Amino acid sequence: MKKVYFFLLGAMMATAAFAQKLQSVQPDWNLYSPQSASAPMKAASLEGTDIWGYYTAEDFANDATIILMGMEKPCETLVGYVVPCDNLTRNSKIQGVRLPIYDPSCLTSAEVRIYDGKGKNILASKSVTPSSLKQGYNDVVLDEPYEITEEIIVAYDIVTKGTTQGAKYPLLVASEIFAENSFLIFDTFKNTGEISDLGTKYGCLLTQLYVSDLNLNGYDFTLDAFKGYTSPNAEFNATVSFTANLKEAVSDVDYTVSVAGGEPVEHHTTLSVASGLYKTGSFPITFTAPEALGSYTVEVKVTKVNGSEESVSSNVAKGSFVNMGRIIPRSVVMEEYTGTGCGWCPRGIVGMEKGRDAYGDRFVGVAYHFFNNTDPMYPSAYPRLGWSGAPSCFLDRSGVEYDPYYGSGSDVCDDIDELLEVPAFVDLDVTAAFTSEDLTSVDITAEVDAVVDGTYEMVYILTADGLTGASFLQNNGYAQYTAAQWGLSADDPLAAFCKGGEYGKSPCKPIFNDVCIAASYTSNVSKGDKLTLAKDEVKSSSYTLKMPVKANLLNAIKDANYDVYAVVIAVNADKTVANSKRVKVSFPAGIDEITVNNDATEVARYTLDGRRISVPTSGVNVVRMSDGSCHKVFVK
What we know:
Jelly Rolls, Immunoglobulin-like, 6-stranded antiparallel sheet, 40 strands, 6% helix
C-alpha cells in the first residue's frame, strides 16, 4: 500500500513541441493494491535477466518521490528514454519492458516501442491489451529479444479515454532522479517529429528494461559525494555510499583517501555485496582533522576489490569538510508558502506541528500566508524565496524546495534531521519585548557570536500562534476522501483533515500557528543589520517591528488565546541560514504605571509571560483596555 506522494501544486509546464500542458497531481485514491507493494514477480521467461533503468528500485509502492503526470485532457501520449550502447549494454539483449501503469481502465490502447537513437524509426514493438494490465508494474515480454548495437530509445505509446482521473495523468515519474534523456516526450499533437527532454527538470520515467547478457566483466564503482563538519585535531568520520555493477560478489575493498590534496593513504574494509547490476552499499572513512580552521577537500577512490586491482574502475568521490573552532548546535527554520485558499495546504499545517513536536526549540517555523490575498493572514512583508507552489517550504534557505509534510521523501523530519547535523555558524542570544504600553510594536535584540569569520544578514520576523476567527477558514482538498483512500493510516496526523476527521470538511476551521504577522522586509530586502564578524567576535543587532493593523488579524488577536513570538534569522553570504532562534515576546517593564481611563472596558487579559487568559488568574495579570491602554493588576 502506498504511504505518501510528493505533490507539486501549480507545476504547469508547456514544451515547445506541443500546445498541451503537462501537470502533476496528487492521486485521489490508493495507487497500488496491497499485492503490488512487494517486489513484483518476473514473468517466467524473464528469469535470470537484470533490470536496467534510470529508476532502479524493484518496489516503488512506498516511494514518496513518485508523482503522477500527464496532459490536461485524455489523449495519445508517447514517452520514453535513451538507452546508451556502452561498455555495459553493448550486445546485451532486451528481453522485455517493465511498464508502470496508474489506471489501466482508462486505456484504449498501449504499445511498447524501440526506436533508433533519433526517434525516427521503429525497430521493434509489442502491442499490449489494456485489459491485461494492472495497477503498478506490468511485465511486457518482447516476441524476440532486441540486441543493443547502437543507442536507442525505448518508449511506450498509450491512448487514454475520459472516464477516470487516470486518463489525464497516466505517467509515473520519480521526481528526485534528474538525468538527461530519462524522460522524453514525443510530439503527438502537431506531428512535427520533435522530441523534448524533460528528465533534468521533472525527473525520470519509472519504465525499466529486462536485459540479459550485460557486460558485467569487472567491478565498476560509482561513489557519491559527501561532506561534514569537525573541529581541530578531532577525528573526522564519514560514510561514502556507492552504486556498483559487479561481475562477482565483493567481500572487501581497498581505497585511497587524500585530504586537502595530500598524498593518498590506502585503507581496507570488509564488505558483503552480491554480484549484479546497481548494487549499493557504503564504507567508512576516518582521519584526523588538521589544526588550522577552514574548508578542506577529500578525495576517495576504490583501488582493489577482493584483494586485486584487476578489472576495477571507480570515479573519485569528491568530499569536503569544514574545520570549525566550536561546534554549536543549530536550530532549523522552516519557511512555508501557504494560504487559506490552497486545498492542499493542510499538509503544511500538520508539517509545522510535526516539526514543533519533534524538535521543540530547535525548530523555527514561519508560515507565510500569501497564496491568496483574501487570506486574513496575508502578510504585508515577507521574503521572496522562490517557492514554485503551495504548500512548499525551504529549510534553512538551502535552495532546495520541500513539501512541508513529506519533505523530499516520506517525512520532512528526515530532511530536518540532516540539517540539524550541520553546526551553526553563529550562536544567537535573542530578546524581544513590546516596546510600549499600547503593545503596537516589538523591540528585538540579537547578540551574534561568530563561530567562523563571516558576514551575516539579520532577518526579523514576528509570528503568532493560536489564530482563529470567523473568516479564518481553510480550504481542504483532503476532505473528499477518507484517510484510507488517501493511503494514510488512521494515526497519521494528516488523517485529521480527511473525511471523518476532526477537520474533515472544506472549508475547515483549524488553529493557525507560526503565522508571519510582520517582517523586516521591504521589496524583498531585509532592513536588518549586516554584521561582519571575525571568529569568536560578538556584536549586537536590534530592530523594531510593528504589530499588524489589519482588522481581521486584530480581531483574531483579540478573540483568540494567542502567543506572539520573535524569529531572528542570521543569513550567510551565500543566502543560506547560519542559525535561527524563536523567542516569546515579553511585556514591557513598568506597564503597571499607566493611567487607566475609567470609561474604558477590559478587552483582553494576559499572564506576565504573554499567555492569553479568559478569566482572572492568581498572580499579576496584564489587562488591555478598549482605549488601547494596558495595566497590571494583582489577583489574589
